[in-house]
Amino acid sequence: MHPVIVLLSALLPLTPSHAQDPFAWLYSGRSSVQADTAGGKCPPECDCPPTFSIAMYCDARGLTAMPAIPSRMKYLYLQNNAITAISDSALVNATNLAWLMMHHNQLTSDGISEKAFSKLERLERFYLQHNNLTSIPRNLPRTLRDLRINHNNIEKVTPSDLEGMENLTILHLHDNAITDMDASLKSLTSLTLLDVSANKVPKSLPEQLHQLYLDSNSIASLPEGFLAAFTQLQYLRMAHNQLTDTGLPSNIFNVTGLVELDLSFNHLERIPLVSTALQHLYLQANRIKEFTLGSFCSIVDVTNFSKLDTLRLDGNEISQEDIPSDSALCLRLASSIDV
């Protein structure tokens, strides 16, 4: 017999388990991580990794009801199931939750109890997009910072729906059926990102917004000074509307704070006047017939050149030949101009 084989056979413990796995001795000395059962055991239909014991993964398990939740959990993933309701007792033990992911379920507004979230005093992120909700759930935790409730069937937002949500910074309401919002968002004093695309434009918006998305709202015109109140606004997206030149006051987008402006897929025939501080301008798929250099730069002061990096004009009625030769001086920082 080969001497190496003899040596290995001498080292192998003679036990029934090793008869099945002759190399078990190589790893039998390693200690396994024990499952954390503090606050309750992990339900059998979910996964609670021992190395990350504060997270519970129940996504895409075919669930139709809420599972039992150990109190130690901070991150709960329930997306891509068929859950229709949240009872008063479903989350009563989940007092440490910071993230609750319930997007892509079958939740209805009637199925969510009025006191369902009463024990969630630390929740910061709640995802409810792609459900069957017709209204914003009542009594949401005031600790929320990120609420995503887009792609539902919500028709109305009232001031009481978001009352006391001073910590909310991100709100996704796009792709609902909202026709009545009035001044419901004015109390959200920390809100920096608001997406209300594919709804009706709210009459009154929080003035401290940094990002505002108004795509697909059938907007044909904007009032004078529309952006004057938004002194911190950096990103404005109004693609897929019905904006026309006559519906836009001449200086409406000439505000120094804007970094990105998206007016693509509208009915504009001229390039609107924008600030030289603007970095990204999207005007594709309009009806623009000429390239007006004065929209970007001061013709008198050539030192005040545009900061534009991205300019999209493709899908209009102009070609590369329509861009004047002196545009290189004005748009000297542009890395991409699509015509």
How are strands sequenced across the largest beta sheet?
1-2-3-4-5-6-7-8-9-10-11-12-13
Rg calculated over all Cα atoms: 29 Å
* Fraction in beta strands: 5-15%
The count of helical stretches stands at: 3
Biggest beta sheet summary: 13 strands, parallel
> Which stretches are poorly predicted, pLDDT < 50 over at least 5 residues?
1-31
The share of residues in helices is under 10%
Order of helices and strands: HHEEEEEEEEEEEEHE
Class by helix and strand content?
Answer: little secondary structure
Approximate shape: elongated
Compute the number of strand runs: 13
Report the average pLDDT across residues: 88
How far apart lie the N and C ends? 79 Å
What does this structure look like?
This protein has helices spanning 3-11, 16-20, 327-330, and strands at 55-57, 75-77, 99-101, 125-127, 146-148, 170-172, 193-195, 211-213, 235-237, 260-262, 280-282, 310-312, 336-338. It is largely without helices or strands. It has a 13-stranded parallel beta sheet, with no helix packed on it. Strand 12 (310-312), helix 3 (327-330) and strand 13 (336-338) form a beta-alpha-beta unit. The chain is elongated and about 70 Å long. Residues 1-31 have low confidence and may be disordered.
Produce the secondary structure layout:
Layout: H1 3-11, H2 16-20, E1 55-57, E2 75-77, E3 99-101, E4 125-127, E5 146-148, E6 170-172, E7 193-195, E8 211-213, E9 235-237, E10 260-262, E11 280-282, E12 310-312, H3 327-330, E13 336-338
Parallel strand pairs: 1-2, 2-3, 3-4, 4-5, 5-6, 6-7, 7-8, 8-9, 9-10, 10-11, 11-12, 12-13
